[in-house]
Specification:
By secondary structure, this protein is of the alpha/beta class. The chain contains five helices and six strands. Helix 2 (58-70) runs parallel beside helix 3.
Length: 180
Amino acid sequence: MKAFKYILFILLAINLSCKDEPTIDKSQEETSISTFYLIRHAEKDRSNPDDADPELTQQGLGRAMHWAEILADVELDAIYSTDYNRTSMTAAPTSVKQNIDVQYYDPTLIDIAQFKSENLNKNVLIVGHSNTTPEFVNKLIDEQKFYSIDDSENGTLFIVKITNGTPTVDKLIFNCNCPK
């Protein structure tokens, strides 16, 4: 009987030591993807050089509507804009089309880690300026890659995708044949 127990013990030990290590099913791991669409405001009214907060020109209004069409197939979760007439007016057509309220932000006070956390797994539009938009992109990708947009350029779209903490960025230029 002792021999039988001994053999049974050995077989159990061999069986337990030969079992494969538990594996993690990678298909069940959750992937986090956040996508940020960053644009500069559309063409602003330059007729009064003393106006620090001008509205958009007719061409700028056309471009703002063009952005809404470009982003129509993107299911946005949030829209952010600086608190200026030109950025608010640029964001407005997309806001109306997608029924999303615009949230205002101050680019000098943005806590990028908190912003990323609050917008995890979301599609977000951010409207800024020739200097703040590339700066925001750099903060999102944690790299000094982009610099101020030329003052005559209003059709730049940055798409920052952060997948499981790893950012990628695309820069596109959209022409707008909007009436002046």
